[in-house]
Design brief:
Two copies of one chain form a homodimer.
Chain A: H1 2-7, E1 11-17, E2 24-29, E3 34-37, E4 39-41, H2 54-60, E5 64-68, H3 69-74, H4 78-83, H5 87-91, E6 96-100, H6 103-107, E7 113-115, E8 120-123, E9 130-133, H7 135-145, E10 149-151, H8 163-183, E11 190-195, H9 201-212, E12 218-221, H10 230-240, E13 250-252, H11 258-266, E14 271-273, H12 276-282, E15 285-286, E16 293-294, H13 314-318, H14 321-329, H15 333-359, H16 365-371
Parallel strand pairs in A: 4-14, 5-6, 6-10, 10-11, 11-12, 12-13, 13-14
Antiparallel strand pairs in A: 1-2, 2-3, 7-8, 8-9, 15-16
Chain lengths: 374, 374
Amino acid sequence: MHNESTSAPMNFELLGRSSSTEARIGKLTTAHSVIETPVFMPVGTLACVKSLTSRDLEDLGAKIILNNAYHLMLRPGAEEVKRYGGLQKFMAYNGSILTDSGGFQVFSLEGLRKVTDEGVKFQSHIDGTYHDLTPESLVQVQENLGSDIAMVLDECPSGGAERDVVQKSMARTTAWAKRCIDARNRPETAWFGIVQGGIFEDLRHEHAQAICGLPFDGYAIGGVSVGEKPEDIERIVRHTAPLLPQERPRYLMGVGTPADLVRGVAAGVDMFDCVMPTRNARNGQLFTHTGKINIKNAHFRDQEVPLDAACTCYTCQTFTRAYLRHLFVNRELTFYRLATIHNLHFYLELMREMRQAIAEDSFNEKEFLSHIGE
Amino acid sequence: MHNESTSAPMNFELLGRSSSTEARIGKLTTAHSVIETPVFMPVGTLACVKSLTSRDLEDLGAKIILNNAYHLMLRPGAEEVKRYGGLQKFMAYNGSILTDSGGFQVFSLEGLRKVTDEGVKFQSHIDGTYHDLTPESLVQVQENLGSDIAMVLDECPSGGAERDVVQKSMARTTAWAKRCIDARNRPETAWFGIVQGGIFEDLRHEHAQAICGLPFDGYAIGGVSVGEKPEDIERIVRHTAPLLPQERPRYLMGVGTPADLVRGVAAGVDMFDCVMPTRNARNGQLFTHTGKINIKNAHFRDQEVPLDAACTCYTCQTFTRAYLRHLFVNRELTFYRLATIHNLHFYLELMREMRQAIAEDSFNEKEFLSHIGE
């Protein structure tokens, strides 16, 4: 019954599988766009991918982006966004929008928040006002935002958390997931559950069973890339992804480097998001097919060549490393956009190439790692 | 002899005159573009109009922009720009570039500079190193930059300067102008002389005679908008513009508000530059046909309408006041570009409308002031 009603807002079709890995390609259809998976979702926390416009996103071929419900709840407010006609209309973007609940951001507010089984009480980082966040209130918030895909409120322990702390978070996350399912009202919003379990394989297994037993439209791997070691990330993703239902999209939250994307795809993940390409861009760290570079480095002053000779983005087709360095050292605002366009293009192009390889059943993890300079 | 050699880099053709005012339209041709005058030149101090790319400038129809020789001399260095193939190639811009000498910026370095008849000795605001600026060295700098139009080094007293101070500046500026003419080497760079004289009409007359007797490709009104009263600006521009040769372009440096542009055009000025549209944009001050607004104002939160209903720029065609305010209060980088696009479009569109009116001989100063919300 739940399953039927939640199938409506979103359709996911598996189109092919790699014969040598867990990698798969599919088609995700929401009310706003058709998305080929595996897909990387640029992060646009406040209904804006920093430095870009919706036209830039369309030029980049980004059919889905991520917004943050917690941040938007505080500014401009979810009711306001509803009045504006929803997130897409507000930001003039014609793709799909997945909203993270922002639970992760709230739990990061050390000293400003109190977590109980009921939910989270916290103080706004903007004006110090008190707010109650419950699984139910976050359903309301994300429905007001008009999200195509919404995430349940979960409790995400830090990467170094002990087994018993992780177990308590799992129990709470499961209880909250059920309350979230009962609170849903808006037929156009799809909901994803989140699997916790830290770095413990048996706990991941246990929690995948609990969450995947609930009628969600998709399933996410949470609690990854929150401070644990790189080898633990890789091990847990490879272990957990195949535990999620074949016929639903699998989303690895907050991950990661280009190499993480390749490994995640090989493990059978369909969706990714991370601030890395956009945040690194603003700090002058740019991805190329010969490895990551820091544009501040003095020797780029003499390089009258594109950032990445193999790249077809506007930045690489138009400007030299020397000019980009000049913009960066002078803190010219133009730099942030040009760098963001490049890094996102690098990520989105990598995903396109992996989809192509899976479609041809030639996907090879090691070849892709070498292709991106690893 | 000088006159012939300096005519080559630039051609100016007067195409029409207003019968009721001094307003005129013309066509300015440089090695890089054909520019309809009167024209407003966006300011791109460091080979970049802040927050925009060269593609944005082309979309806005900006056929000529201003760069600053003094700033570029310090970073990345004029020799470097020469090695990069000149400013246009460096910033991937296919329009014309006028370089201000930056004398005004150097004279603003209170305590860090020493002016003599020979030139200016100053300390870099970036790293404290000492530099000598002479009329000759600034010719070399601007020729290295590959400027289409270069400005002589002048001495610009503040708006409140006494008569005798202004007279000393005039004498020095004339002497420097002659040295600049003798130092020229690059046939592709046109040179403009600068008329000083403060707020004293007889001194303006005297200095216009001195400077316009020298074989420059165009003539600028300097020392305006440097701290004097608005009514003095208007009076001096109306007095000085007609003193400059009819057959050469007349450039009013560093001015101004939209109303200043209308008054300047009516006085017979052909070229303008000012940081106002771009700097104000970044501070949230936006020009509209019903007056200037500050987007931070809380009531814009409820305004789901374009910034300026009469505007055809990308920003107004795509986003609401509510969204722009949201971006501004959250310091989203995207805001700066959207606001800059709008304000520059407002300025450039106003110039297009004035050119059209002059062409039809229907140019009316008061009507244009009312049109821009004055």
